Amino acid sequence: MEDLYDTIEQYVLGKMPEGERAGFEARMNADPDLKEEVAAFRVARQVLETGIADSLRADFAEWKADQADPKPARRAFLRVHSRVWAVAASLLLLLGIFGYWRVSQYSGDTLASNFYDSSELTAVRSAPAGQGELDAGLSALRAGNFEAAASAFQAFDPSNAYFTDAQYLLANTWYQSGKLGEAEAILKQLQTNSDPEISEKADWLLLLAYLKGGRKGSPETTQLLDKITGDTGHSFYPKAVELKRELGSFWSGWSR
C-alpha cells in the first residue's frame, strides 16, 4: 500500500520532476480523495508558515522601534523570540489536533466500522424451509445480545441445512463482540465453501476483522484485499476497491 507523504511533499514544495508532476496532476484529477489530501497538506503548511511570518514581522517592527534604548531593545529581542516560539507551538498544536483527527478517520478500527454493513452481512440465504430456526439468534445479534446469539448459533448440528449459515452468523457475533480470533477461525473455513454467497461474505468479513484487529498493513490483509480487488465478479469488489483507495490515502499511512 502506497505511502504518499513524500510524493505529496515533493509536489507541494515544487521539488517533483516535471514529468512526474504532470503524471501526478493527472492522477489527482482522476482521484478526488488524492486531491483533497494534497489540498489539506498545502493548507497545513500555509497556516504554519503564514502564522509565523506574520508574528515575526510584527515583533521585529516593535523591536526596531525600541532600539534607541539598549535595555528595552534587549527585552524586546527576548520578547520576539518568546512570542515566535509561542506562535509556533500554538500552530503546531493546532496542526497536531487536525492531523490526529484526520489520521483517526483512517485507523483500521474506523475503516472496519465504516465498511461493515450489518444488514448486508447478517442476511442469510433463502431456502424452502428451516430459516425460522435462525430467527432467535438473528434477533439477539441485531439487539446486541451477543451471548444469546452465540448460544443460538452454536446449537446448530452439522447435519442441519442451516449449519453453514449459523456458523457464518456466529462469526458475525464474535466479530461484533470483539472476539476476533474466534471469528477469523470460522471465516477461514467458510472461505472454501462452494456457495459464493457464503465464501465471498467470509472473505469480506475476514478482511474487516484483520483491520479491526490492528493488522491494517499486514501481509494477510494485503493479500486478501488484492484477492477481492483482483476479481471483478466478487460480490464485494466495489467496496474492496473503495477500501483500497482509502488505505492508500496520505493520512492512512500515519495511522494503524
Folded structure, characterized:
The protein has 256 residues and is mainly α. The protein folds into two domains: 5-104, no CATH class; 111-254, Serine Threonine Protein Phosphatase 5, Tetratricopeptide repeat, CATH 1.25.40.10. It has 13 helices and no strands. It is elongated and about 80 Å long.
List keywords for this structure.
256 residues, Serine Threonine Protein Phosphatase 5, Tetratricopeptide repeat, 13 helices, mainly alpha
Give a short summary of the structure:
The protein is mainly alpha-helical. The chain contains 13 helices and no strands.
Secondary structure topology:
Layout: H1 5-12, H2 18-30, H3 32-65, H4 70-104, H5 108-115, H6 118-121, H7 135-142, H8 146-154, H9 163-177, H10 180-190, H11 196-212, H12 219-229, H13 237-247
Helix pairs in contact: 2-3, 3-4, 5-11, 7-8, 8-9, 9-10, 9-11, 10-11, 11-12
CATH architectural designation of the largest domain: Alpha Horseshoe
**Oligomerization state of this entry?**
single chain
Low-confidence stretches: 97-105, 250-255
What's the gyration radius in Å? Answer: 27 Å
Number of domains: 2
Strand content: under 5%
CATH superfamily of the largest domain: Tetratricopeptide repeat domain
Structural class by sheet pairing and helices: mainly alpha
Secondary-structure element order, as H and E?
A: HHHHHHHHHHHHH
**Overall 3D shape:** elongated
Alpha carbon gap, first and last residue = 13 Å
